[in-house]
Design brief:
The chain is α+β, with helices and mostly antiparallel strands. It contains 13 helices and ten strands. 53% of the residues lie in helices and 18% in strands. Strands 2-6-4-5 form a four-stranded antiparallel β-sheet. The chain has a three-stranded antiparallel β-sheet with strand order 1-7-3. The relative contact order is 0.12. It comes from Limnohabitans planktonicus II-D5.
Length: 274
């Protein structure tokens, strides 16, 4: 889904780049390639992506960093490329539980897609990495201007609804070890070649369980040769093995995301042919 620099793409862009503005964007290819690691940005028709890329700013996010608190105005929308974020619920007593996760498959700021202006949950960075952000005003204007962006964003909202619904079932009916495998698979896929830098305490915070439960579950996975854990890092050694230990929620959510993404791409393709 990434952006590949070859003569055919260059030729198409040159044909479309009738203005000096688009020609300048073409020369900034390294930034375009990096941002298009995000699936939504990568799926946009090139001419539409070239237009909005001028409004994207690269930001590095840290594990545990809070992007939004409940009720906070949405000034920006974020498109993760190598980081992952979490929608977190919190009780009045301070107990927490993760409701949904976002990585390079989506965006942070879905209330904007539905006409909202504020966040209704805490959004926290799970895995440190990079995202590209855009001002809320520009994003809302682009939603009206770009049917492709609108379709992709709405499809992701639907995918998030599926993930949140499945999360409710998962929290109540699946073991900590199964939920941990889900968490590891999602975050591991964001940057497969590097270990996940996170503490047991942070994972426990996300899963809404005791730290000891996370440590025990990780110990069993390590004994089975599926992961390596130590010094605030977790490396996935056997992804296939983890998929055999995870609850069915992972495959259900993943399949639904893929179905919605493919549907959006078909609609974008049909629109471009009319």
């Amino acid at each position: 889904m990434g952006f590949f620099y070859d003569l055919s793409v260059a030729s198409k862009l040159n044909q479309l780049a009738c203005s000096q503005r688009l020609k300048r964007i073409f020369m900034s290819y390294p930034m375009l390639e990096s941002a298009r690691k995000n699936f939504i940005l990568a799926a946009l028709p090139l001419i539409q992506y070239a237009r909005i890329s001028e409004h994207l700013k690269s930001v590095d996010l840290l594990t545990g960093q809070v992007i939004y608190e409940p009720g906070e105005s949405l000034d920006f929308v974020y498109f993760p490329t190598t980081c992952t974020t979490s929608l977190v619920l919190q009780t009045q007593d301070g107990e927490t539980s993760e409701l949904a996760m976002t990585g390079r498959d989506g965006l942070v700021g879905i209330p904007l897609v539905l006409g909202g202006a504020s966040m209704n949950h805490r959004v926290m960075v799970q895995r440190a990495g990079r995202a590209f952000r855009m001002s809320a005003d520009v994003f809302e204007a682009e939603l009206l201007h770009s049917k492709a962006l609108q379709q992709l964003a709405l499809s992701y909202v639907q995918a998030m609804i599926t993930q949140m619904s499945q999360s409710i079932l998962c929290i109540g009916h699946h073991a900590v070890s199964e939920r941990l495998c889900y968490w590891l698979l999602f975050n591991g896929d964001a940057l497969p070649e590097e270990p996940i830098k996170i503490t047991h305490e942070m994972i426990a915070h996300m899963l809404g369980v005791r730290r000891e439960s996370v440590t025990q579950a990780l110990g069993k996975l390590q004994t089975a040769g599926l992961v390596s854990s130590g010094r605030g890092k977790i490396a996935i050694l056997d992804r296939e093995g983890l998929t055999q230990q995870v609850c069915e929620c992972f495959s259900l959510v993943t399949a639904e995301k893929q179905r919605l993404y493919e549907r959006a791409m078909r609609m974008i393709s049909a629109e471009s042919e009319t």
